Structures are given as structure tokens and as C-alpha cells.
């Protein structure tokens, strides 16, 4: 089978698409039709992610495809359309082997390409907003990195979970158009976002900040919160890990809330199934739109992963595997 392989830790450009043996062992064998690309894939190509597999390894944390074979007691069977999580490698291959409890039935109204772009981000964002962020009906949400994978997921999910206004923060007009298409009610540029948000909200600020970027905008994010607001710490694509002067939390009655979806799922059996059940209901009822990913062919895996590192990615990025 063909697979996107990391053979040396020299970044996305060093990814090679080569022939390797199909995986063997216990689990569900899936003919992969599409594989999601996420920021950790870029970090893995440089050995910079918290999980550091030794090369050679196959990239890919999330897939959509068709079950080829499954253990008799599994909840899926041969021929089922599925989406799944490899946690965290092995997905960018024509065939993948997954634990049954990391696989879900793909809703009929989702294509393989949309399905491959769902799990990693939508489960994280669902956990962020509904569980860690305690999103209430009618609240306003500000989303950093809004044209990225986590960002477009937050723009789609926040209204479905009750937010009445979702403000996107982006670095360019072009990314603003991507954010609007994903559901943003308002778009502001990263440069000067604090003042723009104050103006948009009549000086009140927002109830929740979704922050996958971190870096030097963090203090202005805290200043953009309304009283009792929550800032959700999701990632640090901006590079720098910010620090918090905790007097700011006291003065405005605000929270900085950590979101570690993978760590939570790893320690809470059944959490993935519960989170997926909530998302599935939103998809099948039509309350949540499918992602509209930017699709690259498997042969262009290096360019696909590089687009996240070099900041040119447009929304969620997915590889077409066959
Ligand atoms: N905590 C969790 O459980 C969890 C789960 C999944 C992902 N994550 C993390 O969430 C973050 C976002 O992942 P993603 O897949 O959404 O990434 P992505 O698609 O590449 O989006 C990230 C966004 O960050 C912004 N950005 C700002 N400075 C950047 C820089 N120097 N380099 C690259 N991007 C920059 C970009 O928007 P602008 O150009 O518009 O600024 C970009 O659209 C990652 O750190 C990832 O590890 C965390």
C-alpha cells in the first residue's frame, strides 16, 4: 500500500510517499479514502510534538473510509462507512488498522473527505466549548486562528451549541473570507483585534475566547473578555507559550481554562463515544454543517502538511487517499 512516511525529522518537505506493507494485528482494517491533516502532523515531522515516534513512521491521526474486516464483537462490520482516530500515526495510508473504540459510523450526509476532517478538531472544540468553556445560550465567542482547522471547527460548532455571535480573528482578508464561509458573524484582523472587538461588542467584550494560537496576543485576549468570561487555551501555533498575570483574573472575574482533549480522552473511558454521540446528533439533525476541507492528493502530502507550518492552509486540510 502507499503511505505518507516520515523517514527523517527534517520537516514536512521531507515526507515521502512510498510503498510499505499493509498493517497486521488485532483491530479493524479500514480501506482509507481520506485522511485529515492537523498541526501536530507538522510538529511530528520535526520531532517537536509531545509524542516523538522514531522514524520511519506513517503520519495521520484521523481517517474516513470503508471497513474491510472487523473482529466479530466489534460495533462495525465489513462494508461500513466509518471515520476514526489512529491516535496519532498510521492514518495517511491506503489501509489502516484501528481499535474498534476509535471508530464511528460515518453519517450518510458526510463525504469521506468531510468525514476525515471532523474528528480531531470537532471533538476538541466540542470538549472545549461545551465541557471546559461552559458555553451558554446567547453568548459571544471570539476565535483566534479562525481560518485554520480548530478555528473553522469553532466557527461551525459554536452557533450549533448556542452561541449567538462568533467573531473570527485572522491574519489576512483572504482568511477572513474563509472564516465568513465557515460561519463567522464578524471578522477582525489579528493586528488591533482588541479594539475592534471592544467596538463590535459595545465595550462589553466576549464571553469565550477560543485560542489555538497563544503568543503575544494573549494579554489582549484577556482584555477582550467580558466579566465571567473564559479564555480556552488550546494550542500555541504562534510559537510562544504566554504567561498570565493572575491579578487580571481577579480584577475582571475571568478564567483561563486549559483544554487537553487527548489527555482527557485517554483518562476517561467512554468520553470519545459520548462526545461523538453529541456531534453525530448535530450532524444528522442538520444543526452542524460538515467541514469543507481543502483537499490534496496523497502524492502532495508534503505540501499539504507544509501548508499548516507555513500558515497558507485554507480551513481544514485533508488528503484524498484513493
Ligand atoms: N488542546 C488540544 O486538545 C488540541 C487538539 C487539537 C489541536 N490542538 C492544537 O491547536 C492548534 C491549531 O491546530 P490546527 O490544526 O487548527 O492548525 P492550523 O489549521 O494550522 O491553524 C492554526 C492557525 O494559527 C494561526 N497562526 C498564528 N501564528 C501562526 C504561526 N506562526 N504559524 C502557523 N499558524 C499560525 C493561523 O491563522 P492566521 O494566519 O489567521 O493567524 C492558522 O490558521 C495546534 O497548536 C494544535 O496542536 C490542540
TrEMBL record:
Domain Enoyl reductase (ER), which positions? 7-319
Q: Which SMART domains has this protein been placed in?
A: PKS_ER
User: According to the lineage, what is the superkingdom?
Assistant: Bacteria
- One of its Pfam families is ADH_N
Gene3D superfamilies, A to Z: Medium-chain alcohol dehydrogenases, catalytic domain (3.90.180.10), NAD(P)-binding Rossmann-like Domain (3.40.50.720)
Coiled-coil zones = none
Q: Can you provide one Gene Ontology molecular function annotated for this UniProt record?
A: oxidoreductase activity
Entry-linked PANTHER family:
QUINONE OXIDOREDUCTASE-LIKE PROTEIN 2, SHORT-CHAIN DEHYDROGENASE/REDUCTASE
- Write the protein's name: NADPH:quinone oxidoreductase
Species, as recorded: Mycobacterium gordonae
Amino acid at each position: 500500500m502507499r503511505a505518507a512516511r516520515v523517514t527523517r525529522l527534517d520537516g514536512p518537505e521531507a515526507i515521502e510517499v512510498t510503498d510499505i506493507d499493509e498493517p497486521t494485528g488485532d483491530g479493524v482494517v479500514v480501506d482509507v479514502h481520506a485522511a485529515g491533516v492537523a498541526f501536530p502532523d507538522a510538529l511530528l515531522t520535526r520531532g517537536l510534538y509531545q509524542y516523538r515516534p522514531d522514524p520511519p513512521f506513517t503520519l495521520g491521526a484521523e481517517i474516513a473510509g470503508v471497513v474491510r474486516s472487523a473482529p466479530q464483537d466489534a460495533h462495525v462490520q465489513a462494508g461500513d462507512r466509518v471515520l476514526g482516530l489512529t491516535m496519532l500515526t498510521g492514518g495517511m495510508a491506503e489501509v489502516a488498522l484501528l481499535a474498534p473504540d476509535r471508530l464511528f459510523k460515518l453519517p450518510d450526509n458526510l463525504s469521506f473527505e468531510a468525514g476525515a476532517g471532523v474528528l480531531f478538531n470537532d471533538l476538541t472544540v466540542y470538549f472545549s466549548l461545551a465541557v471546559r468553556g461552559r458555553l451558554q445560550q446567547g453568548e459571544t465567542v471570539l476565535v483566534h486562528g479562525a481560518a485554520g482547522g480548530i478555528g473553522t471547527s469553532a466557527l461551525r460548532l459554536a452557533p450549533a451549541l448556542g452561541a449567538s455571535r462568533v467573531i473570527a480573528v485572522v491574519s489576512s482578508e483572504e482568511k477572513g473570507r474563509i472564516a465568513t464561509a465557515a460561519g463567522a458573524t464578524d471578522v477582525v484582523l489579528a493586528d488591533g483585534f482588541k479594539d475592534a472587538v471592544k467596538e463590535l461588542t459595545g465595550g462589553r467584550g466576549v464571553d469565550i475566547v477560543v485560542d489555538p494560537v497563544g503568543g503575544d496576543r494573549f494579554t489582549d485576549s484577556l482584555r477582550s473578555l467580558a466579566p465571567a468570561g473564559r479564555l480556552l487555551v488550546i494550542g500555541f501555533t504562534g510559537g510562544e507559550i504566554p504567561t498570565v498575570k493572575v491579578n487580571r483574573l481577579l480584577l475582571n472575574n475571568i478564567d483561563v481554562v486549559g483544554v487537553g482533549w487527548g489527555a482527557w480522552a485517554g483518562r476517561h473511558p467512554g468520553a470519545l463515544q459520548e462526545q461523538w454521540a453529541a456531534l453525530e446528533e448535530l450532524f444528522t439533525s442538520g444543526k452542524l454543517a460538515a467541514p469543507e476541507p481543502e483537499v490534496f492528493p496523497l502524492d502532495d502530502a508534503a505540501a499539504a502538511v507544509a501548508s499548516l507550518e507555513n500558515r497558507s492552509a485554507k480551513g481544514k486540510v485533508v488528503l484524498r487517499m484513493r
